[in-house]
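The protein record filed here:
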Amino acid sequence: MLAGCSSSSVDYDQFPGSANTDERVNGRAMTRAQEKERGTVFGDSLSLFGGEDSKKGTGSGIGVNSFLWRATLDTLSFMPLNSADPFGGVIITDWYTPGETPNERFKLTAYILGTALRSDAIKVSVFRQVNVGPNQWQDAVVEPGTVTSMEDAILTRARQLRIDSATAE
């Protein structure tokens, strides 16, 4: 019944990646350069918060421009955050009601479309609703310059972050 099971034991510690052995090349332990050259199952690296590649502005762990990502989060920080996907480059806020206009509320979705710091790499959608009764909101028109103003503010902040990172090096 257990014919498929072998009576001989296998020493799993001899296989690469085991906890009790180090990786070896030609009988010697691998250097960090060799480990980096080999890569990982996640690609060359999976670094969200640092490392050499993050200094380049593309971020090795995210699929979008890291300066645009941080600038978008900074620019939209006054609004409550609903979700943020650094791999897909989508940031969605929850509804925000400005103190000076309590009968209207806004929601934004920002799309970071690439790894380059360019004006066509950011797209913002703004949604506006007005209060028409107790807990009743109706969609309303967004002023024409609102989207452009938000995108310009994000791009300005991203450029400042890039300048600051270049002077820090």
User: Anything to note?
Assistant: The mean pLDDT is 77. The first helix runs from residue 32 to 38. The radius of gyration is 25 Å.
